[in-house]
Amino acid sequence: MKKLIPLLISVIIVAAIAYYFSTSVNPKATTDKAQTDFAIADTSDVGKIFIADRSGNTATLSRTPEGWTINDKYRARTDAVDILLKTFKNIYIQRPVPQEGQEQVNIVMSTGSNKVEIYDRKGDWIKTWYVGHATMDKKGTYMLLETPKGGRSEAAYIMDMRGFLGMLNTRFFTNESEWRSTEIIKYPDMNLNEIEVVYPSTPEASFKIVYNGGNDIELYEYGKNTPVPEFDTTIVKDYMLNYKLASFENYRTGLSPAAEDSVKALTPYQIIRVKDAKGQREIKIWKQAPNEGDTEDDGVTLATEDLERVYAICDDGELAVAQRFAWDKFRAPFYAFLKKPKN
User: Which residue, of 179, 209, 234, is where some domain finishes?
Assistant: First the structure.
């Protein structure tokens, strides 16, 4: 008899589960693939993503030969777009919404969901997701699907993503500045031709590097037309590696337009010019005033500038905020590349 007890318990549990789903699962939920096929197997064919929230804000991501753009104005963040594409590919239905919760879910989604329209490279509509709020345990996200063949599903599903644990709704935002790429310098293959760094207040520290590939490097003292005959090639090459990738932090300075204009009118402490086969980029950098109470490393001396951030601008565009740890590495002076005399 004792051996039959575990088996009897298992049978009761299975029967209870079957009864729960037979009575609780929303009868409007369908197994029709046209209304449940959220995933996109080949995301390389996605050409446009339109996101709209219930407040009337929208964001349009478009694939171009040069990469993704946001609202046809700026380069879009590669990492954020990649996350969307991975979500499209790896999403799956975790479970239907129970019948007793469907009405409340629909009410919340009608006022708080984001609409995500997905188009192919030809501009044809593929499908639309209605992305709602997360489940109570934050391990699923309520969504509805609309497709050309199946129309819009009447029942929401709780969605999940393979290889990820958490809520998915935070990925579908409409703020343009959050989508905007902050990458400024990007030469992973070192396919640049010239680097010029100018320090207006200390011109003797300025320099120019001409790069012809490999070990063919020339170093110029600023304003001179003759390359330096001897310099430390290793140090110059190490410095050039900084140009593989550099980004601003964001374009939200917290300054009024008048205050931003005042910053731009000041002489920057550093100007960086990078030339490649396509042209030249110019980055200007200004120091920020220190925060109240900031001190130098000794913990006593009051700081004369912000120790964490600077203002920056690229190609006479918008003023941005940049982190010092990312941009201080570009501050090397000319004499840092010269060979030290032997004792």
Answer: 179
Is there a single domain that holds both residue 197 and residue 123?
no
End-to-end CA distance of the chain, in Å?
A: 94
**Neighbouring C-beta atoms of residue 6, cutoff 10 Å:** 9
Report whether 285 contacts 270 (CB < 8 A).
yes
Domain range for residue 156?
A: 25-179
The Cα 131–Cα 247 span in angstroms is: 31
CA neighbor of 96 nearest in space, from 162, 41, 21, 184: 21
The set of residues, in sequence order, having a beta carbon less than 8 Å from that of 248 and lying 6+ positions away, is 182, 184, 312, 314, 320, 321, 322
Residue 238 inside a domain? The answer is yes
**Kind of pairing between the strands at 245-247 and 270-276:** unpaired
User: 305-336: string of b/e by CB count within 10 Å (b at 16+)?
Assistant: ebeebbbbbbeeebbbbbebebbeebebebee
pTM (two decimals) = 0.74
pLDDT single digits (tens) 192-223: 999 999 999 999 999 999 999 888 999 999 98
Residue 231, domain member (yes or no): yes
**Domain co-membership, 85 together with 213:** no
